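Illustration: Cobalamin adenosyltransferase.
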Amino acid sequence: MANRLTQIATRTGDDGTTGLGDNTRVRKDSLRVQAMGDVDELNSHIGLLLCEPLPESVRELLVEVQHQLFNLGGELSIPGFELLKPEAVLALDQALAEHNAALPRLAEFILPAGSRAASQAHVCRTVARRAERTVVALEQLESLKDTPRQYLNRLSDLLFVLARVLNRMDGGDDVYWKSQRLARGSE
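Result:
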């Protein structure tokens, strides 16, 4: 593989713009750059989650997700280009079905809490939702493929399910919301 990064501090962004993969320059506050940043932040949070003790199948899944998020970031950085394939969404669907099947049905809302790994999975989930919202906003201005939006939507669902899986890893459980309204209804 060729050495792509020869210089990190180029100073070309000092004027408030950044270069895209097609050599065009855009403002750093553009929705495209925001979407790229949200995806990068999500990938970084998943990297932090990978520092936790995890079942090997979850670890392998998250490493693959990191690669796909890098593809998504690359696709966002090159307008009109496709790097994230629909098969990546199908892989998330399969993982979602597999991990969800092992969990009890939810009867109540749960809090984004529990074990450290589960809590970090919830942080990843919320960042994935933000990235999805930014991609949806970008779609209002520019033409994008459906796969980036679908991938982020499915990934946030998967991260919710993985948080539940991780809370059960050492015999734990979900942390249920104690709704004042529901509590009053049972009096």
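Reading the tokens back as a structure: The chain is about 60% helix and 5% strand.
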